[in-house]
Automatic annotation (TrEMBL):
It holds the Pfam family TPR_AP5Z1. InterPro entries: AP5Z1, AP5Z1_ARM, TPR_AP5Z1_C, TPR_AP5Z1_N. Residues 1-280 form the AP-5 complex subunit zeta-1 N-terminal TPR domain. This is Adaptor related protein complex 5 subunit zeta 1. Residues 321-438 form the AP-5 complex subunit zeta-1 ARM repeats domain. One of its GO terms (cellular component) is AP-5 adaptor complex. It comes from the Eukaryota.
Length: 800
């Protein structure tokens, strides 16, 4: 983790003796007495920080050294501010008098002092006291010395509000809200820093302050905002910027929950309030209570910002600033409108115009997500058509911007935070699940946590089958997305530098339909691809691509979530269809060996759960299950799935599980499994394959014994096989089992089953016990003696 030199320094810092440390303290104190601090002082401070941070025990510095470090917090050199605050944070909290002296002298406040004060507040009482001091410093008009420190006061208060909002009293909230209103709406509209128009006569008298400008260079014609520019800025303009940066947090923390929610049925009352609000003038807004007044000023500020974003910026950096301000302004408007629904009708015209202007340019995608949030929260109240918004957000964004990590994170976060609201108001978003899964296919490591939460909401009775196929094809989608980007970056006339056959196939019109199906935007265009094996052959070289491998590793987890969800929404007919899909797709997977094993393991466990939940599935799908179990090749290529298919056939193919189960069906199943067992135990495995696993053979033997116990005519046939098995094992010529211990276990299991079948009535009770035997509740049955015995034993062992 650390280099050898770094580890050596850390070790020295940890092993320093107390006597050496005291000498170092005194030497450092002497260095502080010099008027101009040297490089040696800086090195010593860095060493002191290393000593304090490397030790797990918090130390207390000598009082004179502590006092010197506190004075350095107000040093003009920022490097000294950083080092002194870092050292003080590693020590025990300073005394109350020392901290109070800093709090009282507000002119000393800077970023590092503020963070130190917050970190060393030992209780909520101390934090509340610090809040009171900071708010008190904001109350009056700033003097020459304290004006600059105010710029650090507001960020400090924002940190406290985030950590412990209850530290501010109602009085503090009112005071600070009023100050934020003043900074937002009434900041100076002239440039700071002594800007002048230039020219020959540029003396003190002729130096006239210039007005602030818009980003397109025109003179600002309205109040100052964060998007106004100039050669310099006044202190209240800086406070305007800081106030805007904390406005949303402030509104969410202290100005939410005071207004009653208005729904669509109360729209007539809202309309009446809209008329009154629109007619309200700036002077009348001063008569509003502080909370309502702050909302009104925040509304006006954000409306002005959106208007300013219509202007073409002269610098590229300003264009990015416009995007950030647009997103924040729409978020603040959303907060304000949630608390005051009457403002929705005033806000929607500008929001609709903003969406119409930006929707064609995908570079504004991260701005359009807050717009979509606004439509989701208020579209129903305003009775506007939101379909174009959802087609853009769930259609074009994932299809064209799946490789943008920031958009991926924000869009998936949008889905997670609004899942219930989307299910209620935009249920059609579910049909875009093939498109949304592109985020997972492209970067499964980053997106898998989001889809753990989202996947259950995407699984419905209508999407279940297609969703299962899509999850299994997710590594193919990952490879296709890689090919799509490479195809766009490499001209068709230019051969791929790596000679990718899959890229040529992607561009080949003959295979275009396969890839277009994987890249589909909406569901409902088919459950799977007819030529899956062809697709897997085309993507064979992609099996080793890191992105595809990571995607394949995420699929088993999602399959578990899928099956746990689908049993809650599917009827028996759908579950029967899913059993067929599992059998079919167990051999139609991209050629990644570990992926095959993981998927087979998931299929096996959930096949058991489905059949246990609905035993009638075994009879309903007996033909397909027997066809799968009768294919000897499945023993070697799909060991896990095959074993569990055989087990469910032996377990649930009985009249007790389903009255439709006939002797003919039991006999047919017996003959199918008997043929497979005879084939794999009478010859060596095919070339290139391993011997069948002992678990497969013992499961086949148990299934035959169970079936024979239900149809006694079959007992002689299975008994004959067990006797032959013992004879073959004794002869020593067993090509289908090379491990002696495994062979002994198989023969032992055969002898046990043979012994049971000699008493058919006992065999059926043992091999297929009734439900009340499998899940006994004897300890609760008052008609039996067992509860009485348990009570007696309890009293004896817990006697007082």
């Amino acid at each position: 983790m650390y280099s050898h030199a770094s580890e050596s320094l850390i070790k020295q810092a940890r092993e320093i003796q107390e006597s050496e440390l005291l000498k170092f303290y005194s030497r450092l104190a002497k260095l502080f007495q010099v008027k101009e601090l040297s490089h040696e002082t800086l090195d010593s401070l860095q060493r002191l920080h290393l000593i304090l941070s490397a030790n797990k025990f918090t130390r207390k510095l000598p009082s004179d050294l502590q006092q010197r470090l506190l004075l350095l917090l107000s040093s003009p050199a920022e490097q000294l501010q950083v080092l002194s605050s870092a050292v003080l944070r590693e020590t025990l909290p300073s005394s109350g008098e020392e901290l109070n002296s800093i709090q009282e002298n507000i002119s000393q406040l800077n970023t590092h002092t503020a963070s130190l004060l917050i970190s060393q507040a030992g209780s909520k009482a101390e934090l509340s006291s610090l809040c009171a001091r900071l708010v008190h410093g904001l109350e009056g008009r700033p003097s020459e010395g304290t004006a600059r420190s105010l710029m650090f006061t507001l960020p400090a208060l924002k940190s406290i509000v985030t950590l412990s909002p209850e530290c501010l009293t109602e009085e503090h909230v009112t005071i600070l809200s009023q100050r934020i209103i003043d900074w937002l709406r009434y900041a100076s509209i002239v440039q700071g820093g002594g800007a002048s128009s230039g020219g020959f006569f540029t003396g003190p008298r002729s130096r006239q302050p210039l007005p602030t400008a818009e980003l397109d260079g025109s003179v600002s014609g309205d109040f100052f905002t964060v998007l106004c520019v100039g050669q310099g800025f006044t202190e209240d303009q800086w406070m305007n910027v800081y106030s805007f940066s904390m406005l949303r947090r402030w509104l969410l923390t202290y100005h939410s929950g005071s207004s009653s929610t208005v729904d669509a049925d109360d729209r007539s009352e809202v309309d009446g309030s809209v008329v009154s609000m629109v007619s309200a003038t700036s002077s009348s807004s001063r008569l509003l209570p502080p909370k309502e007044r702050l909302r009104e000023k925040a509304f006006q500020y954000c409306q002005r910002l959106i208007e300013q974003c219509d202007r073409k910026a002269q610098k590229k950096a300003d264009t990015e600033l416009q995007k950030a301000c647009m997103a924040e302004a729409v978020c603040i408007l959303d907060c304000v409108c949630i608390e005051e629904p009457s403002l929705v009708f005033r806000a929607f015209p500008s929001i609709k115009a903003l969406f119409g202007r930006l929707s064609s340019d995908l570079s504004f995608a991260r701005v359009l997500l807050p717009v979509a949030q606004f439509y989701l929260n208020h579209g129903e109240l305003a009775a506007v058509d939101c379909e174009s918004v959802w087609k853009l957000v769930f259609g074009r964004f994932p299809a064209e911007l799946f490789s943008d990590p920031f958009l991926s994170h924000e869009l998936l976060r949008f889905l997670r935070l609004n899942l219930e609201n989307l299910q209620l108001r935009v249920p059609e978003f579910i049909r875009f699940f093939p498109n949304l899964l592109k985020f997972l296919a492209w970067d499964s490591t980053a997106a898998v946590e989001d889809f753990v939460d989202l996947l259950p909401s995407l699984v419905t009775e209508g999407t279940a089958v297609e969703m299962l196929h899509t999850l299994l094809d997710l590594p193919c989608l990952s490879a296709t997305l890689v090919l799509q980007l490479r195809s766009m970056s490499l001209p068709i006339s230019e051969p791929s530098s790596r000679g990718l056959m899959s890229l040529d196939a992607f561009r080949n019109p003959a295979f275009r339909g396969l890839f277009l199906f994987l890249l589909r935007v909406e569901s409902g265009s088919g459950h799977t691809i007819d030529r899956l094996s062809t697709l897997h052959d085309l993507l064979a070289e992609a099996a080793n691509w890191p992105r595809v491998v990571r995607c394949a590793q995420a699929v088993p987890l999602l399959l578990h979530i899928y099956f746990n969800t689908v049993v809650t929404v599917a009827d028996e007919k759908l579950l029967a269809h899913l059993v067929l899909v599992m059998l079919e797709r167990s051999s139609l997977l991209i050629n990644i060996p570990s992926f095959h094993k993981d998927v087979h393991r998931v299929f096996s466990s959930h096949l058991l759960k489905l059949c246990k939940l609905r035993p009638s599935l075994v009879v309903d799908q007996s033909h397909e299950l027997l066809e799968f179990a009768g294919t000897t090749a499945n023993v070697y290529s799909k060991e896990e799935v095959y074993t569990h298919v055989v087990w469910v056939l032996g377990e649930y193919l009985s009249a007790s599980s389903d009255s439709r189960c006939s002797v003919t069906l039991i006999t047919s199943c017996f003959e199918t499994l008997e043929a497979v067992l005879f084939e794999i135990t009478s010859s060596a495995p095919p070339p290139g394959t391993l011997c069948p696993a002992p678990k497969v053979i013992t499961t086949l033997m148990s299934a035959l014994a169970k079936l024979a116990s239900r149809s006694h005519d079959l007992i002689p046939r299975v008994s004959l096989f067990f006797s032959k098995l013992r004879t073959v094992a004794r002869s020593g010529l067993v090509p289908w089992c090379t491990d002696e211990d495994d062979l002994i276990a198989i023969v032992t299991r055969g002898e046990e089953l043979w012994s049971l079948l000699k008493a058919p009535g006992v065999a059926q009770s043992v091999l297929t016990p009734p439900p009340h035997i499998i899940t006994p509740r004897w300890h609760r049955d008052t008609n039996l003696a067992l509860p009485l015995q348990l009570r007696v034993l309890t009293r004896l062992t817990h006697s007082q």
